[in-house]
Amino acid sequence: MQAGTQNKKLKTSSKNVAGRGVESTSYQNRFVKGIPFKFDYEASVESTEVVKIKSQNELFIGGKFVKPQSGKYFKTLNPATENVLAEVAEANSTDVDLAVLAARKAFATWSKLSGHERGRYLFKIARIIQERAREVAILESLDNGKPIKETRDVDTPLAAAHFFYHAGWADKLEYVVPGRSVAPLGVVGQIIPWNFPLLMAAWKIAPALACGNTVVLKPAETTPLTALLLAEIIQQAELPEGVVNIVTGAGETGANLVDHPDVNKIAFTGSTDIGRRIQKAIAGTQKRLTLELGGKSAHIIFEDAAIDQAIEGVINGIYFNQGHVCCAGSRLLLEESISELFVKKLKKRMQKIRIGNPLDKNTDIGAINSAGELQKIQNLVGVGKTEGGEFFEPNLTLPSKGYFHKPCFFNGVSSAATLSRVEVFGPVLTIATFRTPEEAVLKANDTPYGLAAGLWSEKGSKIHKVASRLRAGVIWANTYNKFDPTSPFGGYYESGFGREGGRHGLLGYLEVK
Ligand code: NAI
Ligand code: MG
Q: pTM (2 decimals)?
């Protein structure tokens, strides 16, 4: 199908836009109730009917939206159309200074509030996220390129869940470390990536506030809009001024936050390279640090696994969110006896993947977040093709505009090959085989990373035995990419240190006395 016909096809499928679906579950009904949709690809991809995108977006400092000192703005795009969505303020060191100052001032009162009162604010934020879920999900799909199915069913509900969960902790901090008293750290600088923009903001802000800290958060430069929508929600929840401040900008803004002398802790999620740079920058200071970095996670399928379910698990493990997932199951390890059958079934399943308009509720794979990321993926696939193994991509048509990449895999790749070692951060899978559980463990652990792993077997004892020997912070059995605020998340080695979520995540925002 040519790109033109793809657009024409989209024009006729108006019912499917943004969750207004043919098959409607009660959840979908609740979600989309009463929202009229005229269908036209361009308009729907940049719908202003549901989401009012301001053409110029300011910084959020001391509870107010303020202009940047530099007077400079940068553009954020819709990666599915390559059109500019909005201009966003670029914070310089003076703006970062003002944000830290506002957070420091707010800390004096926020840290003295009772846990019960702090919890009430967090509950309120969670509830407003739920109330405005549709707007949040659409804005996220527009700015990031990820399918509405994911922003609607994963990112937005999970962001609310992080606020709900931590609201519950706010008045129970004495149980974080039983028998010891705890205190907040102070002003926390948080730097987040573009792959889960709102979810990462919630994931970072909620525990920090529950513990009594105040925050300066810097979203990624290609996806700043939902963090700014969260700022609006925070205003609506009447959170005291300065408790959360949001400074938009690129790496330099982040570096200004890292270098600021009055910040007590940096929490970073992003690339291993920048993580390393931040670690160096704060070495020798009093600042605390947690790093959540990259991964090259193994996904192991034993011959006794439920094969069709495992196929779905593998699809979700690597192609969810275009593969822009730090814990993506990017190295598939198949028990040799089932490898041929598994690969055959995987190819057939991949042919059914729907790629394209992120606002179409049937879309499985949306747009790659930026031209730079697309280029990086294409380059690595190019390297993969020179290193051997069978390359497969399904016969799918990509939209004529926007940054898209077909889901693909390399079968029979050695563990020394580039694609077995380097994080692609895209819809690219490598496949290798093993004969014994010991070999599976050896291959799975043969990586500089250690964020996650998955295994599929019908045998509980095998799952426990193998899982105990995998060096990864998160291990899924008979599922993959399931997230829950009650469960600590984080990695070994080059995947970083510190945990986020659960009781352990709170330790990153508390001083134990
Ligand atoms: P990045 O690590 O450069 O960006 C993450 C965040 O750090 C952004 O907010 C960015 O503005 C900020 N930042 C950049 N330079 C900084 C500095 N010197 N000091 C402080 N903050 C700074 O990641 P990028 O360039 O967006 O993606 C590159 C690669 O990194 C991806 O292809 C992927 O392999 C990996 N990555 C991994 C993520 C994960 O969740 N583990 C998330 C994003 C990227
Ligand atoms: Mg964008």
A: 0.90
